[in-house]
């Protein structure tokens, strides 16, 4: 998704802008650009390539300036091209924009009637002309012109603006899209994510919905849409730039897969030592919010949705609570029956996913006010919107394909299940102690599964030439099969589908032949014998089986049947172990196929538009 960096400082800000863009690369983008005010002139550079290409161009040009704005673009309106890349210019001002302007066509017609010529196919260009129009129309300064322009914009935006008329100033504004300020020693900065600013500061100011800010080298002021000044707290971030370095790994995805034992240990730190299960892990008000809950509604997208699907099995089996899991983009527009005694759980790695945020807000408008966010970013919009919160401690996830965020979400759901079960009298002390022991041992159990990497690398060679794959699972491992298929699709571009193994005979079996690899998630649980029968059926049709089995599963290896053995069955938490080899398999298949593992085509890390 698009990303913004802005800077006004006593130093040359071009390297800061470029480094900021590099840190935002993980969000996904298809073109880049920057504009600076150098010696009273507006200078722009754009590229349809990577940030490295933009850096090479600015270096060749010897570009240096104290004020600038920069952007990574993920195309929504208009193809990826240099012409459509940001910044967009109108006269002496330049604008970068993240988001979507819904009324751009109406604005465009009006601006064209006033003599403006459009040179791109983007919705964003209207913002530049609109601000220019306000400046020409007598607005008292850049901040005022931006303020008046934003009043006319419908949609979502985070924008950064510079103008030759005010060379020592950057104006920013946000609505529905995140934007934060960074207060450095030598200047004031702004960006879409804190990781872009750690290079210069850890002092952050999170702008609220509809805030605008005027940034100068040694000062800044925040105003509301009516022009009234407002104070926003300065926060010192506990994250560091080191948290996003690649270290010994080839890709962030690989690093993040291997960080899972630590991420799980950090997330489960709330029950470390002698601390038991408690609603308080979810916030001071949790006991009050949880008591009287009669059902659970989980809202999420993509991988986070799969975490919710696993949690459904846990919440119903252990906490005895009816649970539904909804894709956020569907739920937000569905006429559903609301129950105020439902606990609504929004799950999101980023906490900025537009659909998840909108679904949570929609549930609240239906009268469901018992809300909980399970999220990896404490300061995110989803967390701020919910009454309760559980912050997963996965650390920054840079690879577009979610891995450690998923397993830590599952850890959070395990704690939630046990807390609700306990509150409802559905968990005796012995069972609680058993679950706690399993949770505390989980990081070590995951580490053992990671040791399978060399074997998985060998399997990956088999897949690299295939164009289709089927994933099978049953019970709480069916969503794990879904997650495995999603991972393979998104980073290796192999078409993959997941089925509950019992569904195979109702249609998809027709796809099975010698060329179809079938990956089976086969834990040694009460459904194993049923699953074995399903696998027999695949084998009999010539399908090539790749089975991730637990110790003791007793599935014989043979012609067309490949077995990889995980440690012994891990009970309720088994999905957390079984997803790991599927993550590694996708990673290694993508490596063999030579795709851009951390930034797969067409995808963005943080989907802040609908
Ligand atoms: C897949 C993936 C996406 C995200 C989805 C939701 O690997 O990462 O499917 O899970 O876009 O994102 P969050 O969790 O940030 O709301």
Helix-strand blueprint:
Layout: E1 3-9, H1 14-24, E2 31-38, E3 41-47, H2 51-61, E4 67-73, E5 88-90, E6 93-101, H3 104-113, H4 125-136, H5 142-152, E7 155-163, E8 170-175, E9 180-183, E10 187-191, E11 203-206, E12 212-216, E13 219-223, E14 229-230, E15 234-236, H6 252-258, H7 260-267, H8 286-290, E16 295-300, H9 302-317, E17 323-327, H10 328-331, E18 342-348, H11 354-365, E19 371-375, H12 381-385, E20 388-391, H13 404-423, H14 429-450, H15 453-463, E21 468-473, H16 478-492, E22 495-500, E23 517-522, H17 528-540, E24 544-550, E25 561-566, H18 574-593
Helix pairs in contact: 1-2, 3-4, 4-5, 7-13, 7-14, 9-13, 9-16, 14-18, 15-18, 16-18
Fructose -6-phosphate binds at residues 301-304, 348-350, 353, 356, 401-402, 486, 490, 607.
What can you see in these coordinates?
With 610 residues, the protein is an alpha/beta fold. The chain folds into three domains: 3-244, Glutamine Phosphoribosylpyrophosphate, subunit 1, domain 1 (4-Layer Sandwich); 252-442, 3-Layer(aba) Sandwich (Rossmann fold), CATH 3.40.50.10490; 453-593, 3-Layer(aba) Sandwich (Rossmann fold). The protein contains 18 helices and 25 strands. It has an eight-stranded antiparallel sheet, covered by helices on one side. It is globular and about 75 Å long. The model has no long low-confidence stretch (mean pLDDT 93). The structure holds fructose -6-phosphate.
């Amino acid at each position: 998704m698009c990303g913004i960096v802005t800077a006004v400082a006593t130093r040359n800000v071009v390297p800061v802008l470029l480094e900021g863009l590099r840190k935002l690369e993980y969000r996904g983008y298809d073109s880049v650009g920057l504009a600076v005010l150098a010696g009273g002139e507006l200078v722009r550079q754009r590229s349809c390539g990577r940030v490295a290409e933009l850096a090479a161009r600015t270096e060749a040009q010897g570009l240096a300036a104290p004020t600038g704005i920069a952007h990574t673009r993920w195309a929504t309106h208009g193809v990826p091209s240099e012409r459509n890349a940001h910044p967009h210019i109108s006269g002496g001002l330049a604008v970068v924009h993240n988001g979507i302007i819904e009324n751009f066509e109406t604005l465009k017609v009006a601006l064209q009637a006033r003599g403006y010529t459009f040179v791109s196919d983007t919705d964003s260009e209207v913002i530049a002309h609109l601000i220019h129009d306000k400046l020409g129309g007598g607005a008292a300064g850049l901040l005022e012109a931006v303020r008046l322009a934003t009043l006319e914009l419908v949609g979502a935006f985070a924008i950064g603006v510079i103008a030759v008329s005010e060379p020592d100033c950057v104006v920013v504004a946000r609505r529905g899209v995140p934007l934060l300020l960074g207060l450095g020693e030598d200047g004031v900065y702004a960006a879409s994510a804190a990781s872009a600013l750690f290079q210069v500061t850890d002092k952050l100011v999170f702008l609220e919905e509809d805030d605008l800010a005027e940034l100068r080298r040694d000062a800044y002021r925040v105003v509301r849409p009516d022009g009234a000044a407002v104070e926003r707290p300065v926060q010192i971030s506990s994250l560091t730039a080191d948290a996003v370095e690649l270290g010994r790994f080839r890709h962030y995805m690989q690093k993040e897969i291997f960080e899972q034992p630590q991420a799980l240990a950090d997330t489960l730190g709330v029950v470390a030592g002698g601390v038991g299960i408690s609603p308080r892990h979810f916030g001071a008000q949790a006991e009050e919010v949880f008591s009287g809950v009669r059902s659970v509604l989980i809202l999420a997208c993509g991988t986070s949705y799969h975490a919710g699907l696993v949690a459904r099995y846990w919440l119903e089996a252990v906490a005895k609570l009816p649970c539904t899991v909804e894709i956020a983009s569907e739920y937000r527009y569905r006429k559903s029956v609301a129950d105020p005694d439902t606990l609504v759980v929004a799950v999101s790695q980023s906490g900025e996913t537009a659909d998840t945020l909108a679904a949570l807000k929609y549930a609240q408008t239906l009268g469901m006010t018992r809300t909980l966010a399970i999220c990896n970013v404490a300061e995110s919009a989803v967390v701020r919107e919910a009454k309760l919160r559980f912050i997963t401690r996965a650390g920054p996830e840079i690879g577009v394909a979610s891995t450690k965020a998923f397993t830590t979400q599952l850890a959070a759901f395990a704690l939630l299940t046990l807390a609700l079960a306990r509150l409802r009298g559905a968990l005796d002390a012995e069972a609680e102690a058993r679950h706690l022991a399993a949770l505390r041992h989980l990081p070590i159990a995951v580490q053992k599964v990671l040791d399978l990497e060399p074997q998985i690398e060998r399997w990956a060679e088999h897949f690299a030439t295939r164009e289709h794959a089927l994933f099978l699972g049953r019970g709480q491992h069916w969503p794990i099969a879904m997650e495995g298929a999603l991972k393979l699709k998104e980073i290796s571009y192999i078409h993959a589908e997941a089925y509950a193994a019992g569904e195979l005979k109702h249609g998809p079996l027709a796809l099975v032949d010698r060329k179809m690899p079938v990956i089976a998630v086969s834990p040694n649980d009460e459904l194993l014998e049923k699953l074995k029968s399903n696998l027999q059926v695949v084998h009999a049709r010539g399908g090539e089986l790749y089975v991730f089995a637990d110790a003791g599963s007793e599935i014989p290896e043979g012609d067309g049947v490949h077995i990889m053995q995980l440690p012994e069955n891990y009970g309720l938490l088994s999905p957390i172990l079984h997803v790991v080899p599927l993550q590694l398999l996708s990673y290694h298949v993508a490596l063999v196929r030579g795709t851009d593992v951390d930034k797969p085509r067409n995808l963005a890390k943080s989907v802040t538009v609908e």
